[in-house]
Amino acid sequence: MNAQNGSAFMPDEDLMNTILADLKRTVREYTTAATESACPTVRQTFNELTMDTLRLQGDLYTHMSQMNMYTAPSKALRQEVDKQIQCALQTQQKSQQFVQQKTGGNGSYGQAHYPQHQPNQNQNSYYM
Predict the structure, then answer these.
(1) Structural domain boundaries of the chain?
(2) How far apart are CA 35 and CA 48, in angstroms?
(3) Could you give the CA distance from residue 39 to residue 73 in angstroms, rounded to a whole number?
(4) Given the DSSP bridges, would you call strands 126-127 and 76-77 parallel, antiparallel or unpaired?
(5) Model-wide pTM > 0.90
(6) Alpha helices in 1-67, H assignment, sequence order
(7) Could you give the CA distance from residue 90 to residue 87 in angstroms, rounded to a whole number?
(8) Residue 87, class by beta-carbon neighbours within 10 Å (0-12 exposed, 13-18 middle, 19+ buried)?
(9) What is the C-alpha radius of gyration for the chain, rounded to an integer number of angstroms?
(10) Per-residue confidence of the chain (128 residues) as pLDDT tens digits?
(11) CA–CA separation, 83 vs 39, rounded Å?
(12) Residues annotated as region Disordered (predicted)?
């Protein structure tokens, strides 16, 4: 990827930021594909691709952060994050109840059980 004059194609930081942005986009696309898939095997494949891409994105972010190429977002108050998690869990529960109501509880998604989030009181008041 070197230009004819021997200089780099683009600075490493710009190249890594481009790759990072592309990995984020890919995760969104895989997630959409998984949610729109009717075939359990295809859905599982896209779930696995999503998780693999998230791991790769996380590794790249960590590497960039260690090289001071990417600054972490500011800390969030633990109570605000916990509040958002609780809202998401309530929405999820309402959605599950709606699906069970409409399918008579016979749908495979109506039987799913998800772990409940319990705020950890022993940690500091910020998430990183």
Answers:
(1) 1-72, 75-128
(2) 13
(3) 37
(4) antiparallel
(5) no
(6) 12-36, 40-66
(7) 5
(8) exposed
(9) 20
(10) 444 444 567 888 999 999 999 999 999 999 999 999 999 999 999 999 999 999 999 999 999 999 998 877 788 889 999 999 999 999 999 999 999 988 887 655 444 444 555 555 555 555 54
(11) 34
(12) 95-128
Extract the tokens encoding 55. 């791991």
State the maximum Cα–Cα separation within the chain, in Å, rounded to a whole number. 69
Beta bridge partners of residue 67, listed in sequence order: none
> At which residue do the structure tokens 């022993």 appear?
122
Query: Token digits for 83?
Result: 């509040």
Q: Please name the amino acid found at residue 16.
A: M
Rounded to whole angstroms, the Cα distance separating 55 from 42 reads 20
